[in-house]
Design brief:
By secondary structure, the chain is mainly alpha-helical. It contains seven helices and three strands. The protein has helices at residues 18-50, 56-68, 73-80, 84-96, 118-140, 144-163, 170-174, and strands at residues 71-72, 100-105, 108-116. A three-stranded antiparallel sheet has the order 1-3-2. Helix 1 crosses helix 5 (118-140) and helix 3 (73-80) crosses helix 4.
């Protein structure tokens, strides 16, 4: 059997080989990872320009609360991928900064319910607005053809993520961590068990 040269150009009209598809997938993977690191850097700059005392994990905790509404401490830990004691220490720091409100679940006094304070919500709004502005400036630097090509590609990537059930807040929903706040009920069209903010909230 003759080995196909992986560097040999594909003849016109011939379907791509497995090696070509693998190479293309690797190139796309590396490009997405690079873009992901860029977005993390943008988020870090947005946070530093708004509040230099907070870390990105702390911002993500605030975004979880902003996106999902009040949640249980255990669900917060699961969503962030940390153990409950680590989540509790983070919550204590954010609470002392006046950004998170912590109270006992009236239905189960062994559970802690977390929600954003007005100051916490304002901080998230300002950080995300700064991030959106910086990303928009980057996009505007692209040629029109490149911008047009990004839209369907990113939409396809997002749709593929939904098909694979890749959602940063899936774990919160899976463990039943969403908590309907009787003082701030979800709107009628919100998913059962809490609010769902626009996709731009995800971090």
């Amino acid at each position: 059997m003759t080995r196909q040269d992986p560097d040999r150009p594909q003849p016109p009209g011939e379907p791509p080989s497995r090696a070509d598809l693998d190479r293309e997938a690797e190139e796309v993977t590396l490009a997405v990872m690079t873009a992901s690191r860029l977005l993390v850097a943008v988020s870090a700059r947005a946070l530093a320009s708004t509040d230099g005392t907070l870390t990105l994990p702390q911002l993500r905790a605030l975004v979880v609360l902003d996106t999902c509404g009040p949640v249980k401490l255990a669900a917060m830990a699961a969503t962030l991928g940390v153990n409950p004691s680590t989540a509790l220490r983070m919550v204590e720091r954010l609470e002392s900064a006046g950004l998170i409100d912590r109270r006992t679940n009236p239905a189960n006094r062994r559970e802690v319910i977390l929600s954003l304070t007005p100051a916490g919500r304002d901080l998230v709004e300002r950080v995300l607005a700064h991030r959106r502005t910086e990303i928009r400036a980057l996009v505007q630097r692209l040629p029109a053809e490149a911008r047009a090509g990004l839209v369907p590609a990113l939409k396809a990537l997002t749709e593929a993520a939904h098909e694979m059930a890749v959602d940063p807040f899936d774990e919160t929903r899976r463990v039943g961590g969403l908590f309907d706040d009787p003082l701030s009920p979800a709107p009628p069209d919100a998913p059962q068990g809490g609010r769902r903010r626009p996709a731009d909230r995800a971090s």
